[in-house]
Amino acid sequence: MKQQTASPEKEQQASITSENQMEHQPVVDDPSHKPGEKLKDKIALITGGGSGIGKAVAILFAKEGAKVVVNYNSGEEDAKDTEAIIKKYGGEVVLMQGDISKEEVCTELVEKTVQRYGRLDILVNNAGTQHHTESIEDIKTEDLIRTFQVNVFAMIWITRSAVPHMPKGGSIINTTSVTAYQGHGQLLDYSATKGAIVAFTRSLSASLAGKEIRVNGVAPGPIWTPLAMSSFDKESNKHHGEDTPLQRAGEPVEVAPSYLFLASKDASYMTGQVLHPNGGSIING
């Protein structure tokens, strides 16, 4: 995986918190998609569902019949846009703002979802954060702690709260990354969390097999999202994804079908697996 590099412009680029601030507007919806009711009447909770990949997943799930609860932290404008698109298609969506680096917020997300709908069929642990550093010496302890809190601790806290409310046939989908398999010299702690997510996914799948709850993951490659763009300078971002075999970055809408497949009955014989929408990079994982 080609390394993006920092420049003096990074400070300005790191201010990106919304899709509207991106020069390249991510594609999060496919108007030509013909729903097949694959998730009819399912209840889905998606963290980090306000923008990027989570936004595209929320929209696709709703179009396929799911009632969607979208958690987001910052980026209210993007979250409101997610809500508007889903409602445009006649879907049902509930926005829940909250910083999942806090255990009580994670518990509350699940409790409010269950209070409203009585159960939880699909959990998508998608929210994440990352901090660019030139070397391991530059990693700040506070950034390291927050990266693990958001990317790993929250995933475990939310899943722990959710499992008692999930029926047989339930699905948990965790977002890892191509960096878990290839590494990334400037995203050391982020890559470490994504490796932990792969291990957690495989372990949890074994733990929950007896309950007939499937646990899988998705490991996207370079995708057009505010998180990706906020970590590097403008010049690097212009070449985002060009080092993949397809020679371009992916759109969130191209990743969302992987989540739909894993959430639906189509993946009834899959657990402990990771899908790799990454532009063609072979990672043997």
TrEMBL record:
<keyword id="KW-0560">Oxidoreductase</keyword>
<protein>
    <submittedName>
        <fullName>NAD(P)-dependent oxidoreductase</fullName>
    </submittedName>
</protein>
<dbReference type="GO" id="GO:0016614">
    <property type="term" value="F:oxidoreductase activity, acting on CH-OH group of donors"/>
</dbReference>
<dbReference type="Pfam" id="PF13561">
    <property type="entry name" value="adh_short_C2"/>
</dbReference>
<feature type="compositionally biased region" description="Polar residues">
    <location>
        <begin position="1"/>
        <end position="20"/>
    </location>
</feature>
<dbReference type="InterPro" id="IPR020904">
    <property type="entry name" value="Sc_DH/Rdtase_CS"/>
</dbReference>
<feature type="region of interest" description="Disordered">
    <location>
        <begin position="1"/>
        <end position="36"/>
    </location>
</feature>
<feature type="compositionally biased region" description="Basic and acidic residues">
    <location>
        <begin position="26"/>
        <end position="36"/>
    </location>
</feature>
<dbReference type="InterPro" id="IPR036291">
    <property type="entry name" value="NAD(P)-bd_dom_sf"/>
</dbReference>
<comment type="similarity">
    <text>Belongs to the short-chain dehydrogenases/reductases (SDR) family.</text>
</comment>
<dbReference type="InterPro" id="IPR002347">
    <property type="entry name" value="SDR_fam"/>
</dbReference>
